[in-house]
Amino acid sequence: MALHAELHRHLGGSVVPRILWRYFHRQGSPLAERFPTYPEFEDFYTRPRNTLEDYLELHTLVEHVQTLETLPYFIYRLLRGAYVFEDLAYLEIRYTPYLRTDPSLDEADRLKQMRQVIETVGQASQQQEYPIVTSQILCLHSRLPSHINRAMLEAAVESDYVCAIDLAGGDKPYRERMEEWIELYKYALARGLKTTAHLYETLDGCHPELLPYVSRIGHGIQIPLHYPELLPELARRGQCLEVCPTTYLKTGTLPSLDPLKIVFDRCFEAGVDIAICTDNAGLHNVRLPFEYENLLTHDIINFEQLKLCQEAAFRHAFAWPYKDRPASLLSELQQGVAAASLVALEA
């Protein structure tokens, strides 16, 4: 039975390296010539980078091949892996739809095509074979112009497949457009959308001005590490951190997992929830259960704290339609079976 919720997974970083390598070879991509054997591609694709900016450049490898025609192929394989290998019951898929439109079109037609992209992702996510509850988070992009971000927000408001917006693309450019981001986030909340943003992931992304307008905080690890005085306010608002452990090693943000113990300890003490996530499972070549196991084996958290994080993921999920998480439903089912068996024995 699927048991887990994943709140922070980018579509561009979700494709596991072997599937991507095979796709390049089947399509005769120039990257097939550059990487004739899989091991060298895996090493290139999954090795750590020095900075977040270097790391984000890898997304462009995938964005240009995730088109209207190929999105169902990638979505199917994402859901298959998530259901079979990760036991996911719930998945929020985030991406920038404009970057999946046809670059040969003029801008007006690309803006129209964004809605087709959202519809395609939504329909492809309705898999009977791998029944995961899914929803979309559209990523406004810090390097795209204002009118394109506004068009994406309007598309998010109009789509039943979208539950929230995000702000991604690198956190260094946030500052110069902060008034714009706040305006867009206020509008999103007023129209009934949930909100998250890549904030306090790195020391360049520490922008307290945006915190009041996010339902959840993408990463947010610099708050307990360097700004713990903000934690009581996060707890008061009921905001949850989306912590993605492997990311911080891949981007050079942390030298090891050890500082995450401070993150978890201070958040638990302050009453701030954490959902453990993968961020870019394909880029990292890891899956959500590995993130759990890695935190346990490095003594970052214990099993009781893991359970609290797993419960928090469902509690803060933007589109989980049930009151309880699957583990609770399974426990009720087991209790019912046990009671029925007892009645049968007594009879």
From TrEMBL:
Arranged from A to Z, the UniProt key words for this protein are:
Hydrolase, Metal-binding, Zinc
Name of this chain's protein? adenosine deaminase
* Record flagged with keyword DNA repair: no
Q: What is this enzyme's EC?
A: 3.5.4.4
What is its cofactor? Zn(2+)
Coiled-coil regions in this chain? none
What is the protein's species of origin? Thermostichus vulcanus str. 'Rupite'
Record's family?
Answer: Belongs to the metallo-dependent hydrolases superfamily. Adenosine and AMP deaminases family.
Q: Which InterPro entries match?
A: A_deaminase_dom (IPR001365), Ado/ade_deaminase (IPR006330), Metal_Hydrolase (IPR032466)
Please state every residue range assigned to the domain named Adenosine deaminase. 5-333
